[in-house]
């Protein structure tokens, strides 16, 4: 059975090549029925009240990169189903709007046809997607990592797609929803593939034009078909989405959120606090506020940066006499490049944010592996920021480095895997859109990941090679400590994340 499953994962060309070398009846039967197996929509892992009816094939084939009803097949099974459900819902909304003679603009609702709700509750946006690993061998094979657990890179794609679907459930009309940031993804443990799993998401906080979405991964109880009520989820992620007007590309107002339960109020207040901190962080720049009064915090961080650079002096000037347990930051770098292909685009015809996160994670994992000398264990995605959208055909350059390390370990909070006394490796990945024809480049994304070296007792201390590197290191240390403190305060008091 395994060869059949593997063939379904490979491209049609490889499948054809394999079958041409195999003449037994099993292979011929598989080839004749493969198209029907692969395109079947019988797998129902996504909760949705709508189903998509087959449409007639277009008689003409277009070479345009405009989103087609086929492009979701290039994504993971979960992403494909989420996109299909969202596309159908969006089509229904657009039909409702365009069918009303008083509606003049797609993306808005007619007041005569439907009154826009003055508010919504978190439960109104609740959405889930199930991984039926116990009954779907193809799905198990598609998500299997070398260690036999779920592939975290593919899970990142699913998280982004489900968060976008949750955001779409909350808004009215058909605004363009974009991922602004991933605040944190805390990973308690990657689940094995012998149990069914479920992603569950809902809106927890709403501002004027942005919203925060919480996504969790649970194991499904096969007896009750409910999520196991444990004090820890496998995973907990917070996404920030922004709603844009599809015509002007400017932020547009979204429906306010009214919490109902005590836990929902706690999550709403937490989201409001994080949004306020983000605004404050954007206003201040510890190292580049020229002409402004220097705060005590800025002076402290500048002194920390200078001290780190002083520690690196032997490595820079007398490397043969330097501490062999230390290494310069620029010696930990890896990079790769790729062309953004149309198969990786999302429903807005831009490159899928989950795809970028997966590629960023895979490079970060390799960086931590090369640095630590053993298979690293991912603990959390500290922060992902989206600066510029990526279009089909863009040349992307991913560059990674170990931004700093904690050889003796640290305390990231109770919502990640046990890491007491284990060396930690913090990796920064930047994705740049490079335009050789214009001899220029712009930053698209910046990712931060934390890895643990599970069997090591220590690792090398990473030191900066310049004052600029020292400042970046200090800024990241401060941001990580603030996030860790917030995590410890919210989850290390016996409360645990919501179920």
Describe it for me?
It is a single chain. This protein is an alpha+beta fold. It has two domains: 71-279, Roll (Thiol Ester Dehydrase, Chain A); 300-491, Thiol Ester Dehydrase, Chain A, CATH 3.10.129. It contains eleven helices and twelve strands. It has a ten-stranded antiparallel beta sheet. A two-stranded parallel sheet has the order 6-12. Strand 3 (197-206) and strand 4 (210-219) form a beta hairpin. The two termini are 37 Å apart. Mean pLDDT is 81; it is low at 22-44, 48-65, 97-114 and 494-499.
State the strand order across the main sheet: 1-3-4-5-2-8-11-10-9-7
Radius of gyration: 24 Å
From N to C, what is the helix and strand string? HHHHEHHEEEEHHHEEHEEEEEH
CATH architecture heading of the largest domain: Roll
Helix tally? 11
Total count of domains: 2
Low-confidence stretches: 22-44, 48-65, 97-114, 494-499
Strand content: 15-25%
CATH topology of the largest domain: Thiol Ester Dehydrase, Chain A
Helix-strand category:
alpha+beta
Assigned CATH class of the largest domain? Alpha Beta
